Amino acid sequence: MKIRLLLVPIFLYSFCNAQTDQDILKTIYKTSLTNGMSYQWLDYLSNTIGGRLSGSTNAELAVQYTKKELEKLGLDKVWLQPVMVPKWVRGEKEMAYFTTSGELKKVNICALGGSIATPENGLKAKVIEVGSYEDLESLGEAKVKGKIVFINRALQPDLINTFEAYGGCSTERYRGAAEAAKYGAVGTIVRSLSSRQDDYPHTGSMSYGDLPVKKRIPSAAISTNDAVKLSEALKRDKDLEFFFEMSCQQFDDVESYNVIGEITGSEFPNEYIAVGGHLDSWDLGDGAHDDGAGVVQSMDVLRMLKESGIQPKRSIRVVLFMNEENGLRGGRKYAEVAKEKGEKHVFALESDAGGFTPRGFSFDGNDLMLKKIDAWRPLFKPYLIHFFEKGYSGADIGPLKNDNILLAGLRPDSQRYFDHHHATNDTFEHVNKRELELGAATMTALVYLVDKYGVETSLEMKEIKD
What are phi and psi of 134, to 5 degrees? Predict the structure, then answer.
């Protein structure tokens, strides 16, 4: 009974203010589509700075640029939060080929982030193909030792959620080399995690775990087209040899920064809403979709709140996280500092799924939080936003998770995302201006509603039930 009594006033309050909220959302979307800054900022990040791998000069340039742009917005606070990040350098462009029946066929590869280099003059060995690293156990050391393991696992094509398909085989990329090394393999070649057939190898992070340095083996991604060619060639010639050469290096950690800007709340300044994306990217393209889009959309959330004349009740922060791609150091540091300071975060929203047309959000929180959020769904209907589901929020805001915070991730249409993810074609020209701006407006609208109406915490839920 008490729960019913609480929810009815909340519903009536929302209903009575529905027209006002509709007007404000309309203003937000109009501001983004007619006077947005996200596309302009992304142009500079992508085309003037370029790829922003953690520890690189470009990453430092991106820190300074975004800090300067946030300062121009007239926020109450803008600062840099130091964080130590790994420094891995790709080196010279990788090269690879295989020989079969006396014929040499060049293929497209790229080193996986964190891999060691091949020997100075490259590595050449026979190949054994597996569907996953788990197949290695059945093969055993006798069949694997001294060979290059080719892990040929494609994204499952019938999964509508392409992130689910990606998650289904990303462990092969991440742990493949460590597992193959246990059986005496000398290297690994991993099929790129792409949803289409093309000639672009897709990089990404990998780890050796606790494998001793002397036992580590080089690991590279191969384009989907060339993965098919290699697999077909192996059917004809089990003794073919594969050659690849990489000069990547791992250096000591270096200092970098999260970039943070804040509008201080008018009523509850010690309650924080965070919105963000990761400022680092891989080095092959310019990181426009992953995650330049999320960075500039998050920056534009605070700009549009100010442009729309909205004075937030709670303190709204934009957080541009460093080192999501190969360490998650920025997200962990932000959560660590927030905990040390006793900061109360009530909501965090992340954009890290590309700059495509927004479809909605996935939420990580208790059922009462989700019920309240779902009541706002009609406000988003005119903008074709319909996806409000419980699920994964985002890697960088994940460390903030506790029973009293609602986490959310922007969910754009994902069908083309893995065509570009971690590859040389993740570039500015593949981002549509209107789609990017719609995403920024959608994020701003949700932040506005959460700030205005708040979210229930598990503690409040317990008090109601008691």
Answer: -65, -25
Q: Do you find a cis peptide bond into 291, omega within 30 degrees of 0? A: yes
Environment class of 44 (CB within 10 Å of its CB; exposed 0-12, middle 13-18, buried 19+): middle
Helices 18-35, 2-16: crossing angle, 10 deg rounding: 50
Q: Which residues, listed in sequence order, are joined to residue 123 by a DSSP beta bridge?
A: 244
Give the separation between CA 429 and CA 138, rounded to whole angstroms. 45
Name the E strands within 41-146. 77-89, 95-100, 103-107, 109-111, 123-130
- Known catalytic residue at 324: yes
Query: Are 166 and 202 in contact, with CB atoms under 8 Å apart?
Result: no
Q: Phi/psi at 146 (nearest 5 deg)?
A: 80, 0
- DSSP string covering 197-231, please? --S-----B---TT--GGG---EEEE-HHHHHHHH
Q: What is the pTM of this model?
A: 0.92
DSSP character at residue 113: B
Catalytic option among 69, 324, 325, 350: 324
**Tokens standing for residue 15:** 């209903």
How many other C-beta atoms lie within 10 A of the C-beta of residue 110? 28
What is the per-residue pLDDT across 187-222, written as a single tens digit (0 to 9) for each?
Answer: 999 999 999 999 999 999 999 999 999 999 999 999
Helices (H), 290-360: 293-307, 329-341
Cα separation values, 414 from 162, 171, 417, Å: 6, 20, 5
Structure tokens at 408: 């959310």
Give me the mean pLDDT over the 119-144 stretch: 94
